[in-house]
Design goal:
heterodimer, A: alpha/beta, Elongation Factor Tu (Ef-tu), domain 3, Rossmann fold, seven-stranded mixed beta sheet, four-stranded antiparallel beta sheet, 30% strand, disordered N terminus, B: Jelly Rolls, 27% strand, globular, binds flavin-adenine dinucleotide, binds FE2/S2 (inorganic) cluster
Chain lengths: 279, 164
């Protein structure tokens, strides 16, 4: 069976890889798993370009555990033509993959600090690999907190992992939904309300945030209102991309190429550019 | 039971009351009382007269409405949150019911007497009202964002069948 080999994944040329497993996470969201030969190294926050010949290519962040070297997984929401076409594939079907690309979450900046991981909707996917890595390096950080906002209880991603993380004594997990159902016993309200209530030391905390841009914008405001410095708040900017390696200019936002200089940026660096509505 | 002095310190340390003048904190403390509720208890009942508010110090409360689908929670509140805004606005009846999801510790403020006393001092009255207006604006803002359905993807224009 073919495996994903870093050496064979060159800059613009995708390599062909078969899907070795597929999980449906939600009605419109699935995870594709690929075997790797142990040489595919990535850091949390990085993405790959995944393509289906004749359909198109899209950037997707890697959602699997970066310290498990024989597997790589992508969690994808079927939001348009390519991501829906990929969702129709199954075990044994072949896709093209190139990467990994982009800047990772700067986990070292959180050493000896409180680490806040804040996700909205599908934004938990790119953060899952970060959570695995943070747990592997747990003693490097003080409090580790995951705040996760979702549309409704039915749209919660990775319920098995959420349950497992909630059961840990060394990690705080708070989940909120925008719309409740009669069975839901958890929090209801915007993810920013979890920020308001979270226990962390503003001066010694680092936040890593991923979700819709408007959600990240308001989380940024909630965190800075609490006294955090914008240098210590990081966002993953997931706007449209084409080449993924800084060649085509498709993702350019001001002076930044989101694919090459990002997708992870500090709030202080990206805030002026977030006001630009479209690329 | 807190003494008024320690209550003033306790209030001053919360986000909602932070930066408040000492004399206003003392006035609030005079109309405040520590309270406890068991899990499952209805703390506020929709339609009943509203004559107080709570500062939650521990536990979780659900603001809810009874609907044909059962009790639907519109918002949950927790440590540091203020529960109860309807006392400030006519007709001064609770617009939602509030149910304790866990055992609740809170500080209850009796607002009829508090408002009467605050009306004697314009600065205190204005500060109190403006803090509550700020809180209402924040809740309204959050509700609008919740209604925007932020986590849904953009509407897909294609015609292909989706998905499972
Ligand atoms: C760095 C990066 C990492 C990403 N990681 C993930 C991930 O882990 N999982 C995942 O499901 N998606 C992820 N995305 C988003 C994903 O790339 C897009 O959903 C995809 O490109 C849409 O392509 P499509 O052909 O399916 O949809 P299209 O037919 O191109 O578009 C369908 C609709 O989605 C909108 N859209 C297109 N691209 C984006 C985007 N980047 N963000 C928001 N809306 C978009 C379009 O405006 C359109 O309305 C990531 C994007 C980037 C830039
Ligand atoms: S996607 Fe081509 S330059 Fe970034």
């Amino acid at each position: 069976m073919d495996t994903l080999n870093a050496g064979s994944v060159s800059a613009m040329l995708p390599s062909a890889f078969p899907i070795v497993d597929k999980d449906w996470e939600l009605a419109d969201t699935y995870t594709l798993h690929f075997a790797t030969d142990g040489a595919f190294d990535f850091d949390p926050g990085q993405m790959v370009m995944i393509s289906q010949p004749g359909v198109g290519e899209v950037p997707i962040s890697i959602s699997s555990n970066p310290d498990v070297h024989d597997r790589m997984s992508l969690t994808i929401r079927g939001s348009g033509s390519v991501t829906r076409a990929l969702g129709r594939l199954d075990y044994g079907d072949v896709v093209g993959i190139r990467g990994p690309y982009g800047t990772p979450w700067p986990l070292d900046t959180a050493i000896d600090q409180d680490l806040m991981i804040i996700a909205g909707g599908i934004g938990l996917a790119p953060l899952r690999s970060l959570i695995y890595r943070a747990l592997a390096r747990r003693s490097d950080f003080r409090n580790l907190t995951l705040l996760y906002g979702s549309r409704d209880p039915q749209s919660l991603l990775f319920e098995r992992e959420l349950h497992e993380w909630r059961g840990r004594f060394d990690m705080e997990v708070e989940i909120t939904v925008d719309r409740s159902s009669p069975e839901w016993m958890g929090e209801v309200g915007l993810v920013t309300s979890l920020v308001d209530r979270a226990r962390f030391s503003e001066a010694d905390a680092v936040a890593m945030v991923c979700g819709p841009e408007i959600m990240m914008h308001f989380v940024g405001i909630a965190l800075t209102d609490k006294g955090m410095h914008p240098d210590n708040i990081f966002f993953s900017m997931e706007r449209n991309m084409k080449c993924g390696i800084g060649l085509c200019g498709h993702c350019q936002l001001g002076a930044e190429f989101l694919c090459k200089d990002g997708p992870v940026f500090s709030l202080s660096r990206i805030e002026p550019l977030m006001k630009v509505e479209e690329l | 039971m807190s003494t008024p002095g320690s209550l003033v310190d306790q209030l001053a340390a919360t986000d909602f009351f932070s930066g408040m003048a000492e004399n206003e904190l003392e006035l609030l403390a005079r109309h405040a009382q520590a309270t406890e509720h068991d899990a499952g208890v209805l703390i506020l009942q929709r339609g009943r007269p509203a004559s107080g508010f709570y500062l939650i110090t521990e536990g979780r409360v659900a603001l809810q409405l009874q609907t044909s689908r059962g009790a639907l929670v519109v918002q949950t509140l927790g440590r540091g949150d203020v529960l109860g805004l309807s006392w400030l606005i006519a007709p001064r009846v609770w617009q939602f019911s509030a149910k304790a999801l866990t055992p609740i510790s809170s500080i209850h403020f009796e607002t009829d007497a508090l408002l009467e006393a605050a009306e004697q001092d314009v600065a205190i009255h204005d500060d109190l009202v403006s803090r509550f207006l700020g809180l209402m604006a924040k809740r309204l803002h959050s509700t609008r964002l919740q209604l925007l359905d932020l986590y849904q993807p953009a509407v897909y224009q294609g015609t292909d069948e989706w998905i499972r």
